[in-house]
Design brief:
Chain lengths: 204, 203, 248
């Protein structure tokens, strides 16, 4: 039950885009049509789902204050949390690089549709943001970390596909010249965010 | 040379503003604009990080092995961000603000402005222009952040820097504090910017 | 020099990592004491806000040095108790040696799972007694400090804080002064169940131990309610024993 609640919360209530603006740069740049948006969204789900549990384990067993206690009582007082930013981003960058190489070598067809998005993802705030929120919110176990990662990824995917669909239609509308392109997109995202706010009162 | 240097400094603030024109670094920019104080600290942190990481990467530009370029850059940026975070936590007046900014300080690492300027400028230029370019982009970013925060704090809480500005009878508009409004406000800023500068309009 | 050879790449990366790690460890060591001092002053501010030593705004405008002095002037004694309610240690209160139990998470675990707990009790001048509460809200830890009148059951004041509750909803437990002010004058029903009731429309019944939850922040309020009840339960024996000792 707790997992379902966490899952729904991370998709709708605390949506990465609408509530925290994470991953905005690629969100705006790659949402011009549904097909590419779909590809990037799936890549984000995949990378989040794989890196967040790794970072959870690193945080739990290496970085947290007192996390090194399993090495022996001497290490119980060690606090490495100041290293967490650098470790998290290193894990993400290395993972993305690795996946890119594997996919390119063994799954060329997948690479041609998804591969171009992978380099974009290493610097996507949603991925690092997921790990930082995981650390801040002190998720209790690996299962929660995985569910949270999946939920956040799906939330991001949903947001980018919705926006891409709207932007495809928007290109036929008569928008004032200075507002064309980015301007109207921002306002659209704002309105979508308001729509998503109805989930805030959700009770599970 | 002087003209070029001037260009390096002025361009990112107006014509090539990282937020409104290049659409970089939106991620961390909006969430911290509920109050001016937080926005100001965030702006200064970003200026410091972009300037110094551009400087360091420019110094290293001839020695970085190409294959691990991105990772080395990320490590340099992450180091700068951790330093900023540690300093904010240690300062007496900034401790509470650091708590309020929470994860967004860490997210400066993935702020596209920082990596973007390193890739596009610092790797091909001498240290001093790189430093200036980094700082100027940080300023361009900070400027927008402060404009957005000004409106959000003024209408969302009726205060500026925590001091009451609007009369006590003003009922704060809660929508302004919530995330969607930041996006709409930014859309309007872009609108105004492009109405003045017709070159920037999209076809 | 060939900057693309394997050896160069590996050596270069290793060098960068070592240099960066050295710089970061050095600053972490240098700045650590300052950061701890800030964290300590923050805890003291929250405690003194609950105890009503000074208004919250004034406490937050006061410098760390003066906060330590203010605490030393106003505190009478501080000690820790175990789960059996008996005192099992003392905490320093001098200006130079102020001791706090400010990592509440391990204590929370000890309360819930049994074990060696050191629960702090801070007694301010005038017999106002401050205890912490700690629990899990919607997204992360929520905690607070509750000040009791000398009778050991009437709440004199409270202060709540959180790590990452939703701004505008759950975050109100900290941001909205009216919420914490509602706690003053309420009574914890030691000896009966529930000890305290923070929930929707709880005030309607007029019970002395009830406070309305914040609208729209169901999970945060539930977490805070659990935190209050779990921690009050852990202190129950201590407070009731104290009250009995007074009567005799």
């Amino acid at each position: 039950m707790e997992y379902i609640s966490l899952f729904v919360k991370s998709i709708f209530v605390d949506n990465m885009i609408f509530a925290y603006f994470l991953g905005m740069c690629s969100y705006l740049a790659v949402s011009k049509n549904v097909k590419t948006a779909n590809g990037l969204g799936l890549a984000v789900i995949f990378v989040l789902f794989c890196t967040l549990p790794i970072n959870w384990a690193l945080n739990r067993f290496v970085l947290q204050p007192g996390a090194l206690a399993w090495l022996g009582p001497k290490f119980a007082e060690v606090d490495l949390s100041f290293l967490s930013f650098i470790i998290f981003i290193a894990v993400i960058a290395a993972f993305v690089q690795l996946v890119e190489m594997i996919v390119e070598k063994y799954l060329p067809s997948l690479y041609s549709s998804l591969g171009i998005f992978l380099p974009l993802i290493a610097v996507n705030c949603a991925i690092l943001g997921g790990s930082l929120f995981m650390q801040q919110r002190d998720l209790a176990n690996l299962g929660e970390a995985a569910v949270y990662a999946l939920g956040s990824g799906i939330g991001w995917y949903l947001a980018i596909v919705c926006l891409a669909a709207i932007r495809e239609k928007l290109s036929y509308s008569n928008v004032p010249a200075p507002l064309k392109g980015v301007g109207i997109t921002f306002i659209t995202v704002g309105l979508m965010g308001m729509a998503f706010m109805i989930f805030m009162g959700i009770q599970l | 040379m002087d003209k070029k240097l001037k260009e390096t400094i002025l361009n990112p603030i107006l014509k090539g503003n990282p937020i409104t024109v290049l659409i970089l670094g939106i991620c961390s920019s909006l969430a911290v604009t509920v109050q001016l104080k937080g926005a100001l600290v965030m702006a200064i942190s970003v200026i410091a990080v972009t300037g110094l990481s551009s400087l360091i990467c420019s110094l290293l530009r001839n020695s970085i092995p190409n294959r691990v370029r991105i990772i080395v850059q990320l490590v340099v940026v992450a180091m700068m961000v951790i330093l900023v975070d540690q300093i904010l936590k240690a300062g007496e007046g900034t401790y509470a603000i650091d708590k309020q900014l929470s994860v967004y300080i860490g997210l400066i690492i993935t702020n596209c402005i920082v990596m973007g300027r390193i890739e596009a400028f610092a790797l091909g230029n001498k240290p001093i222009p790189s430093l200036l370019d980094g700082l100027a982009n940080g300023v361009g970013y900070g400027l927008i952040l402060i404009i957005v925060a000004f409106f959000r704090e003024l209408f969302g809480s009726g205060t500026l820097f925590g001091l009451r500005v609007l009369p006590a009878g003003y009922i704060p508009n809660n929508l302004v504090i919530l995330p969607p409004f930041a996006l709409i406000l930014l859309g309007c800023i872009i609108w105004a910017h492009r109405a003045f500068d017709k070159d920037l309009q999209e076809k | 020099m060939n900057t693309n050879s394997n050896v160069y790449t590996v050596v270069y990366t290793a060098l960068v990592v070592v240099v960066v790690a050295a710089i970061l460890s050095f600053t972490a060591m240098k700045l650590g004491p300052l950061q701890n001092a800030n964290a300590k002053a923050e805890t003291l501010r929250q405690m003194m806000s609950a105890a009503g030593v000074k208004p919250t705004d004034e406490l937050y405008a006061t410098r760390n040095q003066d906060i330590l002095r203010l605490y030393a002037e106003n505190i009478e004694q501080a000690y820790t108790i175990g789960l059996d309610g008996a005192q099992n240690g003392t905490l320093g209160t001098d200006g130079g040696r102020i001791e706090l139990v400010d990592r509440l998470k391990p204590q929370d675990k000890a309360i819930k799972e049994g074990g060696q707990a050191t629960l702090p009790v801070y007694v301010f001048k005038g017999g106002i007694c401050v205890i912490p509460v700690y629990g899990v809200g919607l997204w992360g830890p929520v905690w607070g400090y509750i000040a009791f009148q000398p009778d050991g059951k009437t709440i004199a004041g409270a202060y709540f804080d959180h790590e990452s509750e939703t701004p505008g909803l759950g975050a109100k437990i900290k941001d909205e002064a009216w919420f914490r002010e509602k706690f003053a004058g309420r009574q914890v029903a030691f000896g009966s169940e529930p000890l305290f009731n923070l929930s929707k429309n709880a005030e309607t019944g007029g019970a002395a131990n009830a406070v309305d939850a914040i609208t729209g922040a169901t999970m945060t309020s539930k977490g805070l309610n659990d935190a209050l009840n779990v921690w009050f339960k852990a202190y129950e024996k201590h407070f009731t024993d104290n009250a009995k000792a007074e009567e005799e």
